[in-house]
Design brief:
5 strands, 9 helices, 5-stranded mixed beta barrel, DNA polymerase, domain 1, OB fold (Dihydrolipoamide Acetyltransferase, E2P), 224 residues
């Protein structure tokens, strides 16, 4: 299993890049969001990868963070969602956006991805809603292990490199808030919905702010 590639970006194409690792070129398919976050040709780059194995095909898919890769693995576990559809969903929403949409049951957000119809979007939400809290919590431990730093740029060039989405810090904050609410006794599904809704209002919120906002959202349920 190839879990990560680090080398020099040789070129970018419409849906993939070529990474030169010690003189060997690896074609890595990426979402639009990941492609936009990568530096220009000749720059140092690293991506977490997932290898798709078929009888007549081997394809590598690249991700900025292991959290994003985990969501890819979950998405392709849904019947009817192949790697192409997963890339479209992650490219449209990002890992945090996917987590929020599924947790909140927002099939319309998933349907916004190119090539994803309403029935498939609803199936994604229905099949993954119970797995979302655990995956969101996993994002926190992954972010801590990475130091909350995305993997795509090893030696960033401030001119050539566009600013990547701040996915890892946001994922970590949401995961920490989710863990705190569960420690307070809230059910994982309720806690995840509240954190997702709070993060939807302020995606840059830190853990403490997310916890306060989520508690306010949960308060009416406590009083009911």
């Amino acid at each position: 299993m190839i879990g990560k590639l680090a080398g020099r970006l040789d070129y970018k194409a419409g849906d993939h890049v070529l990474i030169d690792v010690g003189g060997v070129g690896y074609v890595v398919h990426c979402s639009d969001r990941t492609l936009a976050a990568l530096p220009g040709p000749g720059e140092a780059v690293a991506l977490y990868t997932e290898l798709l194995v078929r009888e007549d095909l081997l394809q590598l898919f690249g991700f900025v963070t292991p959290y994003e890769r985990e969501w890819h693995r979950l998405l392709v576990s849904v019947q009817g969602v192949g790697a192409k559809a997963s890339m479209a969903i992650l490219g449209t929403l990002g890992a945090d956006g996917v987590a929020r949409a599924i947790t909140l049951g927002d099939a319309a957000a998933v349907k916004a991805a190119p090539g994803v119809g309403p029935k498939l979007a609803q199936r994604v939400v229905n099949e993954l809603k119970d797995k979302a809290p655990a995956t969101m919590a996993m994002g926190g431990s992954m972010g801590a292990a990475m130091g909350d730093a995305p993997a795509q740029v090893i030696a960033p060039d401030p001119v050539a490199t566009p600013s990547p989405p701040a996915q890892a810090p946001s994922s970590s904050a949401q995961a920490d808030a989710l863990s705190a609410l569960q420690n307070l006794g809230y059910a994982p599904s309720d806690a995840a919905r509240a954190v997702a809704e709070a993060a939807g209002h302020d995606g840059a919120a830190e853990t403490s702010a997310l916890i306060r906002a989520a508690l306010r959202l949960l308060a009416p349920r406590d009083q009911a």
